[in-house]
Specification:
The chain is mainly α. Helix 1 packs across helix 2, helix 3 runs antiparallel to helix 4 and helix 4 crosses helix 5.
Length: 214
């Protein structure tokens, strides 16, 4: 029983240290310093452990980075679920979604910086992992659109991919914006996404009219 209890304590301590390493790496990210510039020694120091102890938790810095990408993707998916809950309480779908997205960037700028910067980084493992996480985000948006409108799945796929691309590009600007600029960005983003949504609706119904007139 004693060994079992002591093993549980060790497992909790190991998980706590792993968490500290991930947090330390995120803390050191900024507009000037990307993940590729992070030092294992500096990350370990901020986490409060010796550099040699790092390898008890991650094989190398790349494995730490992939854990950060996984966490960022989970945060993104939680964002969309949070927006859905807000939408269920009433209000504009687009406005609620965009406001939630910009709030996410405001509260998690370093998470967003990681996704943006490493998406075009030199590591193929990073690029693939981030592409997968963004695709998960798109898939959840497609699922929402499939339930929210009567258009075919492939229309909703194209619409979701366009919306996510536009939103991410806007998010890159929002990181350095003040409150007034962000509010202006929200209005611009809502307008752009509305154009995508109405364009998809228009194309679908135009196609339906052609089919009916054959």
């Amino acid at each position: 029983m004693k060994n079992s209890k002591s093993g549980g304590v060790r497992a909790k301590q190991k998980e706590k240290t792993r968490r500290s390493l991930i947090d330390a790496a995120f803390n050191q990210l900024n507009a000037e310093q990307g993940f590729a510039s992070l030092s294992l020694r500096e990350v370990a120091r901020e986490a409060g452990i010796a550099a040699t102890s790092f390898y008890r938790h991650f094989r190398d810095m790349d494995e730490l980075g992939l854990a950060m990408v996984d966490e960022s993707g989970l945060t993104l998916r939680q964002l969309l679920r949070q927006a859905r809950k807000r939408i269920e309480k009433g209000g504009s779908v687009l406005r609620t979604s965009v406001t939630t997205f910009i709030e996410f960037i405001d509260k998690n700028p370093k998470v967003f910086l990681l996704l943006l910067r490493e998406k075009a980084g030199t590591s193929s493992a990073f690029r693939s992992a981030i592409a997968r996480e963004i695709q998960h985000f798109i898939v959840e948006l497609v699922d929402y659109l499939d339930n929210a409108n009567s258009m075919p799945h492939y229309y909703n796929e194209a619409q979701a991919a366009a919306m996510v691309t536009i939103a991410f590009n806007a998010g890159a600007e929002a990181i350095d914006f003040d409150i007034v600029q962000r509010q202006e960005l929200i209005e611009d983003l809502i307008f752009q996404l509305r154009m995508v949504s109405r364009g998809a609706y228009y194309l679908y119904h135009k196609e339906q009219i052609k089919l009916e007139n054959r």
